[in-house]
Amino acid sequence: MTQLSVVSCQLSVVSCQKTNVMDIHIKRIYEDASKTDGFRILIDRIWPRGISKEDAKLDEWMKEIAPSTALRKWFDHKEERFEEFSKKYIDELNNQPELVEKLLIKAKEKRLTLLYGAKDEKHNQAVILKSFLEKQ
Predict the structure, then answer these.
(1) Residues 77-91: pLDDT tens digits?
(2) Which residues pair with 115 in a beta bridge?
């Protein structure tokens, strides 16, 4: 194999690896949109208070990927329930492979910013969904 062939093969491997890299961020919907957000997708089942659809600057609202209404109400943003909420939400995600796949494809194409409305930045569905997607 010539030196040029080896370099060509190495470049092919690098480009193949880059296409599988996901760039997923999470952000409160109340923060200003940025050009660096990439594909902005709201992952709340209910539209966030005080935000107009114009101000949200969304690419998509995927309410179906949000926790079920029953699970969301049970969790009630209580930190002590977060561990159990995470397990139950992951179970729901495992039952929605087509929606998960859609997000994975987007995350491989360009930066994916998961938007949520919760005040707690550490204990919300976006944190769980981001981790779930990165493990796929």
Answers:
(1) 999 999 999 999 999
(2) 27, 42
